[in-house]
Task: structure prediction
Amino acid sequence: MKARHWILAGLLLWLGGSGGAADGLPTYYDAVAPILNTHCVGCHTEGGIAPFPLDSAEWAVKMAPAIASAVAEGRMPPWPPGEASPKMRGERRLSPEAIATLVSWAKAGAPLGEAKNPTLTPNKSVARTPDLVAAMPRAYTPDSRLYDDYRCFLLDTGLERDTFVQGYRIQPGQSQLVHHVILFVIGPEAVQRARAQDGADGRPGWQCFGGPSLGAGTGSLGNALGFWVPGTQGTDYPPGTGKEIKAGSRIVMQVHYNLSAPAHPDQTRLELFFADPASQPKSIRRMILAAPVEVRCPPGVSGEACGRAFALERSELKRVADGIHLLCGTTLEDYLRRDIGDGSHQETHCDFSVREDGVALGVLAHMHLRGKALRISLNPGTPGEKVLLDIPRWDFHWQGEYWFEEPIALRQGDRVRISCVYDNAEAIPGPDGRPLEPRYLTWGEGTTDEMCLGGISWVK
Ligand code: HEC
Result:
């Protein structure tokens, strides 16, 4: 890894790191601070989600080698969609020139240059008054025995008539801990179940991982209002559109707390902005994409946990596992017959056909901890193939929904393929810090289950 990094760094250097002092070398004040301020300090600030700040010369210099390797290897800023994806709104991607600048600056020993007060980019969002604010009903202190605590909270949104949401903001209570938030809309039938779970273990909310854990048919990602990750405020749906929430529905907010910082009571808040019904917003629909998950243990690893029955027994969504085969025209045998090599690259896919003409505005994708890569494409295998989302290196912590810069036309009869790749070769760190050994993976919401789920947000 190291060697590769320096080869890459050398290459970038040779390509010409520019934008700096008279001798051609970039300095902190001239060239580096503006990049860090624009692309990094949103998270790398005192009290932010990142483990150290990058908003001062002192820290930037101290972290220079780490900065160079993180940007050269594409780990930072976190932005999962790869080059093959269409251009997305709010892309957090550094230009090759910016990467070259940071790398050559670090290699030159991180010179400061002539001191200037680097101007921080102003916060572009204009404060608006939300139409509805719903906070977690009580503060929750994440479980400090865990590395990652996934917790669901039923928000009292009290929406008694059909409402069009135009956008939302998340205000994390503890921004060092709150690593992602998923908002699920649940129908009236699931609200009772949510109430029963809420607080059942003596603490606010209930434990949940890949979904709201309220049983099959509830609050799947198909009904997700949205995702939030640090470094953003929230989402505004494309102009003239909105997401309709039916009367009597409620919002379940799933919060992922990462406990690399000390646990403190958190009371994260959701702010909703409604569309004016008179403006007749177009209702955002979601075409759901899913592929079977039949991921086997690597060769040489066996035992009860490597059996499908064991996995199904523990899944809350057992019926989904078989249902998706019906939907995709596949059988379990198709998967069991395959040669999986060393188990580190197990692919699955499924095709769907577009039922009516429309316009695609965005995409979302969801896998769990064993996910390795994911792709959603329109008309695969034809000359007109268009990739809608390509995530070459899946990272559960940075999953989300993406909105295209340019809407993409959908025609009745178009094919859409979702394909997911899993790595089930070795043990990986689990949320409680203990290793998760390979086991059979099938559909479920747990940390040892998987999903291959995507969606296309579109309007008629
Ligand atoms: C959206 C939030 C976010 C943004 C934007 C961001 N970081 Fe980070 N950064 C993190 C978090 C969180 C971590 C802790 C490790 C992790 O969770 O991936 C981290 C870790 C790091 C690390 C140490 C770990 C590693 O992978 O090397 C470096 C170095 C780093 N960031 C540099 C940067 C630089 C340079 C930028 C801007 C070009 C940047 N980050 C932008 C959130 C962010």
